[in-house]
């Protein structure tokens, strides 16, 4: 479904749009590779990709609200708003 959505976007269809990668996978290596490729794809579409993305192994999805809360807190602790603001201001895609 994601491929169908992204294939329908004009280039650069996500220009300047803040984006966060969210990946679930069975193994850590698979998750890391998928997150990297998704980040590259979103960047090619012009999105401003915040990092690091949210990567969750399937075995950790039970109680995922805590996982998401921890992720958001971590992003905010590194100054996500300033990070995105600087990248949006200069128009540098992720």
Provide structural commentary.
- InterPro entries: Flavoprotein-like_sf.
- This protein is α+β, with helices and mostly antiparallel strands and 94 residues long.
- The chain has one domain (2-90).
- The chain has 4 helices and 2 strands.
- The chain has helices spanning 2-7, 28-44, 64-77, 80-90; strands at 18-25, 48-57.
- Strands 1-2 form a two-stranded parallel sheet.
- Strand 1, helix 2 and strand 2 form a beta-alpha-beta unit.
- The longest helix has 17 residues, at 28-44.
- The model is unreliable at 85-94 (pLDDT under 50).
Radius of gyration, in Å, reads: 14 Å
Strand content: 15-25%
Name the strands of the widest sheet in spatial order: 1-2
Tally of extended strands? 2
Mean pLDDT: 76
Class by SSE composition: alpha+beta
| Secondary-structure element series | HEHEHH
Sheet with the most strands? Answer: 2 strands, parallel
> In terms of per-residue confidence, which ranges show pLDDT below 50 for 5 or more consecutive residues?
85-94
InterPro entries: Flavoprotein-like_sf
Descriptors:
globular; 2 strands; alpha+beta; two-stranded parallel sheet; 94 residues; 51% helix
């Amino acid at each position: 479904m994601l491929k169908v959505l992204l294939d329908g976007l004009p280039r650069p269809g996500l220009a300047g749009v803040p984006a966060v990668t969210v990946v679930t996978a069975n193994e850590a290596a698979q998750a890391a590779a998928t997150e990297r490729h998704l980040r590259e794809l979103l960047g090619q579409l012009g999105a401003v990709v915040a990092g690091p993305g949210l990567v969750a192994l399937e075995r950790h999805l039970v109680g995922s609200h805590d996982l998401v809360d921890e992720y958001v807190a971590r992003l905010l602790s590194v100054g996500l708003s300033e990070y995105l603001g600087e990248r949006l201001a200069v128009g540098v895609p992720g």
